[in-house]
Amino acid sequence: MTPAWSSGPYRRRALLLVAAAALVLGVSLLDGCAKDDGGAGGDRPGAAGRTTVTIGTFGVFGYKQAGLYAEYERLHPGVTVKESVIERNDAYYPQLLTHLAAGSGLADIQAMEVGNIHEVAAARGDLFEDLARAKGVRRSDWLPWKWAQATTRDGRTIGLGTDIGPIAVCYRKDLFQRAGLPTDREAVGRLWAGDWQQYIDAGTAYTRRAPAGTVFTDSAAGIYNAAVHAYAERYYDSRGRPVYADSPAVKASWDLAMQAVRGGLTARLKQFEKPWDQAYANGRFATVACPPWMLGYIKEKSGAAGKDKWDVAAAPRPANWGGSFIGVPKAARHKAAAIELAVWLTAPAQQAKLFERQAGVPSTPASYAMPQVKDARSPYFGGAPIGAIYTAAARGIPTLVFGPMEAQMGTAFTDVGIAQVEQQGKPAGAGWRAAQKEIENAVDE
Question: How confident is the model over 159-173, as pLDDT tens digits?
Answer without folding.
Answer: 999 999 999 999 999
